[in-house]
Amino acid sequence: MNKVICNSLRSYVAFTKFQHKSCQVPNFLTVSKMSYVNHQKCYTKDAPEKKLFTPGPLSTSPTVRQAAFTEYGSRDVAFIAAIKTLRSKLVEIAEVSKDEFTCVPIQGSGTFAVEAVFQTAVPRQGGKVLILQNGAYGKRLAKICDVMSVPYQLESFSEDSKVDVNRVADILSKDKSFTMTSIVHCETSSGVINPVEDVGKVVKQIIPDCIFFVDAMSSFGAVPLDMLNGNIDFLVSSANKCLQGIPGFSYAIAKKSVLMNCNGNSRSLSLDLFDQYDNLEKTNQFRFTPPTHTMLAFLQAVKEFEEEGGVSGRGDRYKKNRNILREGMKDFGFEEFLDSSHEGYIITSYKYPQDLNWNFTTFYSKLNDRGYVIYPGKVLNADCFRIGSIGHLYPEDMKGLLSAIKQVLQEMNIKLR
């Protein structure tokens, strides 16, 4: 059993024994203790870990999880130094100048960072956003603007195609009132990688002052993206994606000259990136309670990312994972949602088989029982499921998944060929 959990358990049991000697232990405490002990059985070293073939949260290394066991106070000198290092490292990973760009971490999942950019970068008066969407996560951008009552135009593209740069240019040329253009780099509902750099060039060419905002949630750290070449002003991602940390915070890589013009825009206190940045610059501290354990684990994740070779090294492993998956699923007879013109290697959507015995819930449950977790589909015009290639997964894990899929197909009496 994990040493930290064992120590916690001993302390808990010792405490309840002491309480029992000195006074009558309430029934609810006895029940709680029993539940606590039973719960710990799930965490013995002999219990098999499940492999997560999902878009997030992802499988993480044991050393990343171990790093989360360290406890610091939010004002601890060592933790303050950790925040400073984390911010610096993320700017380095983005391959931009620390003089021109900064990293602003914020509590919460990736969607918190997405909304924080809209809150911060869209002015309260006169703001208008062009949202380019070809999937569920692009539509989420529109939902955020709806809730904020921010004027926007939603330009939709087919879920199985990339955003059309020429169409974007035509829209911007006809309406130069947009103050922001937003796009998702890797549309995780399908696996499409959008031509972000080409879109960014068009945006700044037609409307130089239009802010270009990229949601790189599931691509940052594994899919090359030149922020300077793409004229990107804001880019967001999350700790628990390609950098393989644990969930708990997200972050924005922001162009300082643009961020400095955003003071007073935010309609939210907690999601104000300018205010967060200002306080971080002055004190190296969060304004509100930071996710200490998650951030310490993330520093370990970044160390492992660098040891693997950075963006290229991690991307190469994910590509190998994807190639093994592609060939194995093709041999089984599964059909991909996207055609061969798409080069993404983050996640793959597969169409449901046309077999009378097919049932996704059964398929999912049988794989889950074997320790392999896949994901339901999220495209709207086809019944699909998704399998991710990212996280702490290696070629042998992909082969293990394929072996499990073969067994499950046989159990379900599904023949795809």
TrEMBL record:
**Ranges where the Aminotransferase class V domain occurs:** 77-339
Q: Which cofactor does it need?
A: pyridoxal 5'-phosphate
Its catalytic activity? glyoxylate + L-alanine = glycine + pyruvate; (2-aminoethyl)phosphonate + pyruvate = phosphonoacetaldehyde + L-alanine
Write out the similarity annotation: Belongs to the class-V pyridoxal-phosphate-dependent aminotransferase family.
Which InterPro entries does this one have? Aminotrans_V_dom, NH2EtPonate_pyrv_transaminase, PyrdxlP-dep_Trfase, PyrdxlP-dep_Trfase_major, PyrdxlP-dep_Trfase_small, SP_NH2Trfase/AEP_transaminase
Q: Which residues carry this modification: N6-(pyridoxal phosphate)lysine?
A: K241
Q: What is this protein called?
A: Alanine--glyoxylate aminotransferase
One GO biological process term: organic phosphonate catabolic process
Task: For this UniProt record, give its keywords in alphabetical order, as a comma-separated list.
Answer: Aminotransferase, Hydrolase, Pyridoxal phosphate, Pyruvate, Transferase
User: What species is given as this protein's source?
Assistant: Mytilus coruscus (Sea mussel)
Q: Please state what class of enzyme this protein is.
A: transferase
Annotated positions binding substrate: R386
Q: Name the Gene Ontology molecular function terms of this record.
A: 2-aminoethylphosphonate-pyruvate transaminase activity; alanine-glyoxylate transaminase activity; hydrolase activity
Report the EC number(s), separated by commas if there are several: 2.6.1.44
Q: What superkingdom heads the lineage?
A: Eukaryota
